[in-house]
Design goal:
By secondary structure, the protein is α/β, with parallel strands linked by helices. The chain is 32% helix and 19% strand. Strands 7-6-5-8-9-11-10 form a 7-stranded mixed sheet, sandwiched between helices. Strands 1-2-3-4 form a 4-stranded antiparallel sheet, with no helix packed on it. It binds S-adenosylmethionine and zinc ion.
């Protein structure tokens, strides 16, 4: 970590100010601090800095579901090939934030995984704080140790170790539904945004009620679905019920065993038509493998409607600016602004 990160941090337990208690190097802004200790001025708890990352977990040991989440995401992201050419267009489409919205800004990447989208927002001129629960974040160490505009923090979004109102932008791509409560996680993260800041979140969607499904925004080119919408609604519900049933088993399997079982499933993904029985149709085998595993492994995988997410935005004092259009399966994404 660098000294420039310290003013943003707060104790995950009591919200107190954090200070350096011990350090391997003399703290100067340009120096990457490899190891040391942070101490809370309020509750006096100490936190380690290991491999340059402040590890700011809450005091109570993580619940077993959270530990499984940590293990499965570390397993997948440490095996992910790396940044892909599609990362930037996907990031801009999913966050719904224009590329010009990052220059000179301070965004929080809330649940950064291996950091593909942190790299994109950094390339757009932002000083980025990448945050994650799992060891996946360690893949950003080589970049962060060379780059004063990329900060890394490890912890739990349900106890975010940041001061309120410090970030210009917050984005969270496919993360909050993997916590024990998507709503609680959203309501803990939203206060970290400054007044006027943009907050972009997408979470897994559920078909929900007919009223909700039939008013979902469809992506350009998918308007024809409107003609057969009741059938589509039924199919998406059946798919969700089948997938949830399979996950009752897969989320209980040892992580390496499940990963091995994903190989034959991933091979199906290369066969026309049969590929739609799997959870990823990505052309790259390793990416497909990880996307299948990513669907089947995490213990928490909640699904929501756009109405729920919009309600959470309002509750957190954010105006809704945009709703993400999507295909057959709802993907619930909202861009909002802090009042
Ligand atoms: C599906 S991955 C998405 C990663 C990244 N946003 C991306 O799209 O590449 C979900 C990430 O959320 C992280 N995560 C899950 N629960 C978390 C929590 N309670 N606090 C912080 N991160 C969490 C996982 O460790 C994982 O890296
Ligand atoms: Zn404290």
């Amino acid at each position: 970590m660098r000294t420039t990160l310290l003013p943003l941090l707060a104790c995950p337990d009591c919200g107190g100010e954090l200070r350096f208690a011990s350090l391997s190097e003399h703290p100067r802004p340009e120096v990457w601090l490899e190891s040391g200790t942070l101490a809370c001025a309020g509750c006096r708890r100490q936190f380690p800095i290991e491999s340059g990352i402040p590890r700011l977990y809450p005091k109570h040991s993580l619940a077993s579901g959270v530990r499984r989440t940590q293990t499965s995401f570390a397993y997948e992201w440490l095996r992910y090939p790396g940044s892909m050419p599609e990362d930037k267009p996907i990031f801009l489409e999913e966050t719904q934030i224009p590329a010009s919205g990052f220059e000179g800004k301070l965004p929080l990447d809330a649940g950064c995984g291996m950091g593909r989208y942190s790299r994109v927002s950094r390339s757009l001129g932002a000083t980025v704080v990448s945050f994650d629960l799992s060891e996946s974040i360690t893949r950003l160490i080589p970049a962060a140790s060379e780059d004063p505009g990329l900060h890394l923090v490890q912890g739990d979004l349900l106890h975010p170790p940041f001061k309120p109102g410090v970030f210009d932008v917050i984005y969270s791509q496919g993360v909050l539904h993997h916590t024990s409560s998507t709503e609680d996680a959203f309501l803990r993260v939203a206060p970290l945004a400054k007044k006027g800041a943009l907050v972009s979140v997408w979470v897994y969607g559920t078909p929900g009620s007919w009223r909700s499904f039939s008013s979902n925004p469809l992506r350009t080119g998918r308007e024809w679905l409107k003609k057969v919408l009741p059938l589509v609604w039924l199919v998406v519900w059946i798919r969700q019920i089948l997938s949830d049933s399979v996950r009752v088993v897969t989320t209980r399997l040892p992580v390496p065993l499940l990963y091995a079982l994903c190989y034959p499933l991933t091979a199906l993904g290369a066969i026309p038509l049969l590929k739609y029985l799997t959870f990823s149709v990505h052309p790259h085998f390793q990416v497909r493998l990880i996307e299948n595993f990513d669907w089947l492994a995490p213990p928490y995988q909640f699904k929501h409607t756009k109405e729920e997410l919009r309600e959470w935005y309002r509750h957190a004092g954010l105006d809704v600016l945009k709703q993400l259009p999507h295909g057959v399966v709802p993907k619930v994404g909202v861009l909002g602004r802090k009042r």
